[in-house]
């Protein structure tokens, strides 16, 4: 079982779907003035260390653990307002002492709710999650098909509100007595070229919460043994039969094929999609030569400025793993609207 689920929602899902005993799911539903994202989850098991954290540890985590142990016995959900000390609050993104609100909900092993949510996310579906506050009602998910998934009986009023939810953010509605979330599919990283950089890049990207697809025209390199972390492997010959997964505003593409005959057709297709990040691993000179060729063959200059080459941040990396790290760092920065500079200089 995973020992840390505090990085991404998908990490939480992998852990909760492998539970062999009843547990308590803690959901961060309120964070005061902090800009920390709501919906962060952790798992509490009776008499054991929690899996993940919703409050970054400290005294607050101890209060949650005590409440979770009581819920393991009573079986009753509880809404808890947890006070943070000044140091904890600062680490949490608050300027002074404050409090966070956490819903603690018992969950059975192999809960149908979380197993279905995990499958739906792997299918790229948009989900609406509802976590009722306090005791009594059970959490549920609303799938795009209209199917309601739960391990109990959903509250009809909350179901109606979830069906009308259009926001892409998490909302705490104390009046309605529920925490509403719209969960978009995870962002995707498409790696074109299964050379030495691809395995470490795929591995790091998955840890960072991205869904990874690797494309290559060499079956011998495109194997689960070489790329065990990738979610999908796609046999694609860009110069003959170009195949890429569907691209969207949640896709990032990095080309590491080191082959002009591959780079040009891939860039033509990718630049026609609304992807936030497209990069090519190449020397500055060769990368510019590829862009010049595309410009001469009709690709607009505005489109070409989207291509980042050489790919990655300037970390001084020379090994495949180091280069992969620099690329992933740039991807994460772009997805969050940041430049990738030192935090100390912000």
Automatic annotation (TrEMBL):
Q: Which Gene3D superfamilies match?
A: NAD(P)-binding Rossmann-like Domain
**Segments forming domain XdhC Rossmann:** 189-331
| Protein's recorded name | XdhC/CoxI family protein
What sequence ranges are listed for the domain XdhC- CoxI?
21-81
**Organism domain of life:** Bacteria
């Amino acid at each position: 079982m995973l020992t840390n689920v505090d990085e991404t929602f998908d990490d939480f899902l992998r852990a909760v779907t492998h539970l062999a005993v009843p547990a308590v799911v803690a959901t961060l539903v309120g964070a005061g003035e902090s800009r920390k994202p709501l919906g962060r989850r952790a798992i509490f098991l009776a008499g054991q260390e929690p899996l993940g954290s919703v409050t970054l540890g400290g005294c607050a985590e101890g209060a949650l653990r005590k409440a979770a142990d009581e819920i393991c016995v009573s079986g009753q959900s509880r809404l808890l307002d947890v006070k943070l000390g000044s140091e904890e609050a600062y680490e949490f993104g608050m300027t002074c002492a404050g409090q966070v609100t956490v819903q603690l909900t018992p969950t059975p092993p192999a809960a149908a709710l979380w197993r279905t949510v995990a499958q739906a996310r792997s299918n790229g579906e948009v989900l609406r999650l509802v976590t009722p506050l306090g005791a009594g009602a059970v959490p549920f998910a609303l799938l795009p098909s209209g199917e309601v998934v739960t391990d109990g009986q959903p509250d009809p009023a909350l179901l109606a509100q979830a069906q009308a939810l259009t926001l892409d953010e998490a909302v705490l509605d104390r009046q309605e007595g529920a925490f509403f979330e719209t969960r978009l599919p995870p962002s995707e990283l498409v790696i074109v070229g299964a050379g030495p950089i691809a395995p470490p890049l795929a591995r790091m990207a998955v840890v960072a919460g991205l869904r990874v697809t690797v494309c290559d025209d060499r079956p011998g390199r495109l194997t689960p043994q070489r790329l065990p972390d990738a979610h999908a492997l796609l046999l694609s010959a860009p110069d003959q039969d170009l195949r890429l997964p569907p691209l969207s505003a949640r896709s990032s593409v990095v080309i590491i094929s080191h082959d002009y005959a591959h780079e040009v057709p891939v860039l033509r297709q990718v630049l026609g999609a609304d992807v936030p990040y497209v990069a090519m691993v190449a020397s500055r000179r060769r990368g510019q030569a590829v862009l010049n060729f595309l410009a001469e063959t009709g690709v607009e200059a505005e489109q070409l400025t989207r291509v980042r080459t050489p790919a990655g941040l300037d970390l001084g990396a020379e090994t495949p793993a180091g280069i992969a790290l620099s690329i992933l760092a740039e991807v994460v920065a772009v997805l969050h609207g940041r430049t990738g500079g030192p935090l100390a200089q912000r």
